[in-house]
Amino acid sequence: MDQGSESESRDGRLRAETRAAGDLPFDNPEALQERIETLLTENAEEDVVALLATLHSADLANLLARLEPEDRQRTIGLLEPHLQSDPEVLTYLNEEVREEVLALFHPTQLARALTELDSDDAFDLIEDLEEDTRTRVLAALPTLERRWAEEALALPEYSAGRLMQREFLAVPMFWTVGKTIDYLRVAENLPDEFYDIFVIDPMYRPQGDIRISQILRSKRSVRLADLIIEDLHTVPAAMDQEDVARLFRQYGLTSAPVVDDVGRLIGVITVDDVVNVINEEAEDDILKLGGVQEGDLYRDVLETTRARFSWLGVNLLTAILASAVIAIFEGTIEQLVALAVLMPIVASMGGNAGTQALTVAVRAIATKEINDRNARRVVWKEMLVGGLNGLLFAAITGGVAVAWFGNPFLGIVIGLAMVVTLIVAGLSGSVIPLALEKLKIDPAVASGVFLTTVTDVVGFFAFLGLAAWILL
Question: What is the pLDDT of residues 207-226, one digit of tens each?
């Protein structure tokens, strides 16, 4: 058997092994990862390359993220020629792994690879580059792509202009369905995928859009002006990407035209980009609430420790404040040890109730469901919910305290403290994010620290203060 036949046989065997690991590699990533690690251990580098070449770009990106750092570096090195010829996998990689891959590219090679991608995907890679590398890559790009990238970089970060795709289909209003279809059949450089055809006036301003399905169902003689959907939702280039996502969600859009300051059509945003925005914003809020950063999974120990230290330091200060409140009532606790046993219950209930109110408020702020007109109603509702829950749990915890320690007054103390703490938790959980929003501070970042401080301090102070007043 000649060398070519041997190679074809090996590729076929590897594809069979991939199918054996699951109908699709992504369905069983653990088995695929194990197979790659085994091949690397055996130094079967050609088999690794052949196997990975059969994967979808998204599956390959997922695999690279799952590999151990040493195996990932080695695999990226083996895939360098494949990544340069088929750079789509770069668009699926998370930022940390992407940096490792892009380090292999010479700026000229990277510029050549970017021209193979849609403009929105290419720009997503460009804006993440270091400034020096970005300058060299931009210089190596063709004139049109370089101008697009420079215009996008001049727009605000996280704006629609940085999210849009420059490839779109726009035709004059006076065209007919037949002329449009004929154009689609012969035109070069059409977008790989598009959902709508935008109809423009002589000033290149969008007047409406037409679904491809409408074009296919209409007779050739029908004018486009008779088919356009006039309720067109245009997106200013400077609009924040969160507002873009909200627009898509509210009106069920699949695509939307992006316009410049004078209303001219300059790009299009498609629903797949909006899905990415929604995922990124949700992930960012979750990470901020936990005081961690994106990419912590791939950073080294010292870098991760340094990034988390400041947040933990803030929490230490708030914990000291809560402890200072406890120290005020040190004598009270010494006289009645039961207080030390029951004290964490009040603080824990307050913290959880406050987190519930906080979650509702932060989400409402993010989705623009809360404003100056209904903010007061939301705050009063959260306080009322906290009060009602406080009464219910006051009866439960009061009964438990009496049964546990045989002291009815202790039950009264913890019951009253529960009511006070849960009302304050509802109040602070809704007011804190609203106040931070007014101060132009991201509520998802700072609300948790303030809420924990308030609920702990109020919970301890209410419980121990009432105990000192009623019991002693």
Answer: 989 988 899 899 999 999 89
Q: How far is CA 338 from the centre of its chain?
A: 46
CATH of domain 170-271: 3.10.580.10
Q: What is residue 7's predicted lDDT score, i.e. its pLDDT?
A: 42
The model's pLDDT over 145-189, given as tens digits with 9 standing for 90+, comes to: 899 999 888 888 889 999 999 989 999 999 999 999 999 999 887
What topology does CATH give the domain 301-470?
Tetracycline Repressor; domain 2 (1.10.357)
